[in-house]
Amino acid sequence: GRKGGHKGRARQYTSPEEIDAQLQAEKQKAREEEEQEEGGEGATGDPKKEKKSLDSDESDEDDEDYQQKRKGVEGLIDIENPNRVIQTTKKVTQLDLDGPKELSRRERSEIEKQKAKERYMKMHLAGKTEQAKADLARLAIIRKQREEAARKKEEERKAKDEAAMAGKRLQSLSLNK
């Protein structure tokens, strides 16, 4: 009985071709504004700038334009914050792969933990730690108990054997009579 709300009735989606056309138009507008700012220097200036105005599919220069655009009021206010870090991209040729890497705090602590564990295991195997000494003492006590138990079993077995031999002797003596 209820009618649906107003949401979702007439949804219109833009096609990828339309989006591409809009982006191209915005890029063209930005180039024209740059040329107007430069004035008459465009024809006598750098060949890179002329190439930039001629090429429409250069992705590197488009990225630079995108990074230079500021949102909202940022373009009107000059910010001189010494703590502000401006991210600069490095080229592959500028990267120093041979130099020592700086480890993060977590990585350093992880490496220290592993080294400490290895040192402890070496000392443990050598019997120098308190836990190793306690383990060795416990093992010595257990060995003594097992030796005593083995001795007792051996004695009992010998006693049974002697009793059995004595019983056989008595039996053989009684049969001989």
From TrEMBL:
Biased composition regions of type Acidic residues, renumbered to the chain: 56-65
Chain positions covered by the region annotation Disordered: 1-113, 147-177
Superkingdom in the source lineage: Eukaryota
The Casein kinase substrate phosphoprotein PP28 domain, residue ranges: 81-158
Bias-annotated ranges (Basic and acidic residues): 46-55, 98-113, 147-163
Biased composition range(s): Basic residues: 1-10
Name of this protein: HAP28 protein
Source organism (scientific name): Leptocoma aspasia
Gene name as annotated: Pdap1
